[in-house]
Amino acid sequence: MTSAAPTALPVYISALSKYYGAFRAVDDVSFEIAAGEFLTLLGPSGSGKTTLLMMLAGFARPNAGSVRLGDREVIHLPPHKRDIGMVFQNYALFPHMSVGENIAYPLKLRSVGRAEREERVRRVLDLVQLSGYAERRITELSGGQRQRIALARAIVFEPRILLMDEPLSALDKQLRETMQIEIRRLHDRLGMTTISVTHDQREALTMSDRVAVFSRGRLAQVATPSDLYEKPANRFIADFIGESSFIPVRRTPEGLVYGDQLLRLADAGDGAQADPLLMLRPERLSIVRPGQVACDEKRNVFSGLAQSVVFQGESLLIEVRLDPGDVVLVRQSNRAGEAANRPGAGERVDLVLDRPDARIVSAEG
Amino acid sequence: MSLLQTAASDYRQPAATVAALRENAQALDRDRQRENGQLLRLSLPALAIVVILMVAPIGWLFSLSFVGADGGFSFENYTRIVTDGAYVSIFATTFQVAAVVTVLCLLLGYPVAYVLTILPDRFAQALMLAVLVPFWTSLLVRTYAWLVLLQRRGVVNDTLSMLGLIERPLPLVHNMAGVTIGMVHIMLPFLIMPLYASMKAIDGNLMRAAANLGSSPVHAFFRVFLPLSLPGLIAGAVMVFVMCLGFYITPALLGGGKVQMIAQRIEQSVSLFPTWGPAAALAVVLLVLTGGFLLLSWLIVRRFSRGE
Amino acid sequence: MESHVTHKQRLWLYILTALILLFLVVPTLIVVPMSFSSANSLAFPPPGWSLRWYQNFFEQDKWLTAALVSLRTAFGTMIVATTVGTAAAYSLHVGKFALRGTIYATLAAPLAIPAILLAIGLFFVYASAGLLNTTAGLIIAHTLVAIPFVLITMTAGFKSYDMSQEMVARSLGANRLTAFLTVTLPQVKFSLISAALLAFIVSFDEVVVSVFVSGGDVSTLTKVMFQTLRDDIDPTIAAVSTLMLVIATVPPLVLQLAANRKRES
Description:
The complex is a heterotrimer of chains A (365), B (308) and C (265). Chain A has helices spanning 49-57, 99-109, 114-127, 143-155, 173-190, 201-207, 225-230, 235-240; strands at residues 11-20, 23-33, 38-42, 64-69, 72-73, 84-87, 161-165, 193-198, 210-215, 218-223, 245-248, 250-252, 255-258, 261-262, 276-280, 285-288, 299-311, 315-322, 327-333, 348-354, 359-362. In chain A, the strands form five sheets. Chain A has a six-stranded mixed beta sheet, with helices on both faces. In chain A, strands 16-20-17-18-19 form a five-stranded antiparallel beta sheet, with no helix packed on it. Chain A has eight helices and 21 strands. Chain B is flat.
């Protein structure tokens, strides 16, 4: 995490709920965001992440709960008294104002003098690398430029918190990837507490210090990008972040067992989960010829039958039916060295899973 | 610390939070109600005008319509409408005028809307001015124009006799003919505009598809275009019919007192007679007819637009 | 739309349409040449040209007073109806309270109810409130008639406007009123102008209600015209009609052309 700006505030969200009739859009959500942290709310559409953002901004009124910025409860405050900058999905730049007037709008509302206003507009335009654009009309800007102006307008008055609702969804893929890095760099410079919403897991993993994953109105897990990938709390998250196959395992006095094979796991504590599943990331499995590698304390070896091999450019995706009957996916990188181990469809293979990569997740969230 | 104490303190902590959150929930509910109240207040001035000047007087008319000549409750105002020949003929005239005007508007309006639909946009917009200018013009001005055009020595009679079509001037004004011509002229834009809008929304590909599948143009028109334009046609026709039912100015001027419709009768009852009862009953009947037909057309159009 | 029927085959349809459009336009515009006639009779075409009927209009108190009453009333109605109608349209568009549908229907109802019923209702209320034959009474009565037009126009305007702009303005520190005035209003100004214009014309052209609630020195132009027309068809009315035609059709046509140009640019 980067160093927080002196004005940055932590955000405490507790027991926040929003119902629409019987539908629980946001259901009893609690978590904290540290001062200067970049946190992304991630989830499929309808998971409640946007509703949560709207409640932070003051546009949706929760049914219960509390939102504190620092030590100040803001839940009863109207949007304009919250001192929160917000970037909307469609940017919502004011078409009847020039770029400069758009950015100066929050400063005017705060009665900032003309000279200082112009200076701050100029500085923030430099910051988003659009120096000299103040006189342009909004309609003359490209999508990426609009995104930057919307961002400039949201930070020019130095709000305590910056909110972004799907800030990059209106851009094409290439521009989106450039902007992800640029937004992250800007955050590192400014040290603002930032909360972003997205349904794009790649975007969430790239930009954030931590990611909060939502599912059906509830907070499923909040963790750093790497923890989310390596130690997902349940099957939903493992499925949502990256690819994964799951195989059911049984609990026995000796430990967790797949088929009649005792598993060597990364974390002994995993044994406490309900409805345990073994999570198999396709890139963490390696394919060897039958009997080539023996099972020991450091690795698990599963036998199976290769069913199909799909060429995908930088890698190959191989479907393997394990002997107990479950089908898993294996990703093999497209290097010459791997070609020797590449099976054809219908050949028997062994799959090797190193102990540190063997993670148990629970079926239910 | 005993096990019991631990359990008790564990219990107290969440209980306090729950109470605080419940209080918060009530405060949030009050916030929501306050915001909605503030927004609702913005529509109150308009609502006050409509309620005080329209809803209340109509309610009052409704109650007056049940007051008999002796001041007591009675249905006599309504029974008179059904039994008194004068009233019966007023209703007959009103319905006759409304029906004839509506049919004429349909016959004249449909081809215009259709041609506007098939012409290129730029051209259609220019021709639309010919519909919009009368629409924007005061109906008093247009009624006056017809008074002048249709009089005994007016342009219409002069032209017809010059062409040798008539020997003596036709009586075109201060009678049913004058009322009908004037009202068709005033109502036609009200039919063309919704009809044009609904025809414009018909997907041209459907007609091309019909032609592609071997329909003759006439067949395609009757099987595809006409049914699809029907919702707009019904909406427009009912609007014209309903407006005719309550029309006052044009029949009063072009009818010259010889064509009595409901609205004129209401006006006369109010200004000539001291009792409001008969006028109130007529007003209630007119209102119910208007509302009934509008509701009917809404139901029909809704059924159509939901798709068969 | 196009099909494989040629324009030539449709010639009869085009001729029919042209005739119907002439039927619409000619009687509307014929008052213009008639008003410049030199003759006492209403012969057409006029035997000669003169401005005598306009002179007649401007020399008679009856017409001038009525014209001023009508303009004053239309102006007042425009201000009041546009304000209360826009406020109502905004509240119904943004608000989340129950009864929204009922309130909208109530406010739009004066459009569907026959004018004669509005007129006798107003006549009764005004008679007991002492508002008959007053400019204020006329303005409020015409506001009742104009509210549906403003409501419908402004609701359409708000619907085609992106409300997240107002939300942005509020997140940037504007309260609801400031956000509305600085961000929303400038962007729905076209609807607002249309609504104001409609309110003006609806009032200026209104006859039935005016016949009932205006009188004496505060008779509207339409009331004086209606009364005069019952007795004879004085050519002065052609001059009045031409003036009314200009006042009621030129602004909307200019607006329409401006809208077309804006859409094309």
